[in-house]
């Protein structure tokens, strides 16, 4: 059902589709938006309109996850979502910097998850879901599963 505000106007969130696609463009111009699509610096959601950033690199630290400006650190130390990570330096595993901002009119975020997908040598597809950060004082169980958050 569409809702009107006090001036009998539709609110944009009431007349939009249930999800949206987003690009991280430097400016709101056609050229900049297409550049972001070429970089594959994009994401989509179904439902909540959260803002999401993900960077991959070889040297992110715990302190990097607490910066108020994750994009600056992300670009300095890694590549943005959709980018191609360079070959691994000897003995290093990739690290990731994740930032998300909840929908202003939605529920609090429950958790950040990273989904790793790959194809093995025989061509079979595989997927693993990693819980990387979550709300409240919950802890992962022995299988790496996270208890439900309960009522929000």
What would your notes on this structure say?
This protein is α+β, with helices and mostly antiparallel strands and 152 residues long. It folds into two domains: 12-106, no CATH class; 108-152, no CATH class. Helix content is 14%, strand content 30%. It contains three helices and seven strands. The protein has helices spanning 12-15, 30-38, 70-77; strands spanning 19-23, 42-46, 51-57, 78-80, 95-101, 111-119, 125-134. Strands 4-3-5 form a three-stranded antiparallel sheet, covered by helices on one side. It has a two-stranded antiparallel ribbon with strand order 1-2. It has a two-stranded antiparallel ribbon with strand order 6-7. β6 and β7 form a beta hairpin. It starts with 11 loop residues before the first helix and ends in an 18-residue tail after the last strand.
* Total beta strand runs: 7
Residue share in β-strands: 25-35%
Number of helices: 3
Summed up, the domain count is 2
Uncertain residue segments:
none
User: What is the residue-averaged pLDDT?
Assistant: 87
Question: Biggest sheet: strands side by side, in what order?
Answer: 4-3-5
The biggest sheet amounts to: 3 strands, antiparallel
* N-to-C SSE string, H for helix and E for strand: HEHEEHEEEE
**How would you describe the shape?**
globular
Helix content: 10-25%
Spatial gap, N to C terminus: 24 Å
Briefly note the structural class of the backbone.
alpha+beta
- What is the rounded Rg? 19 Å
Write the layout of secondary structure elements.
Layout: H1 12-15, E1 19-23, H2 30-38, E2 42-46, E3 51-57, H3 70-77, E4 78-80, E5 95-101, E6 111-119, E7 125-134
Antiparallel strand pairs: 1-2, 3-4, 3-5, 6-7
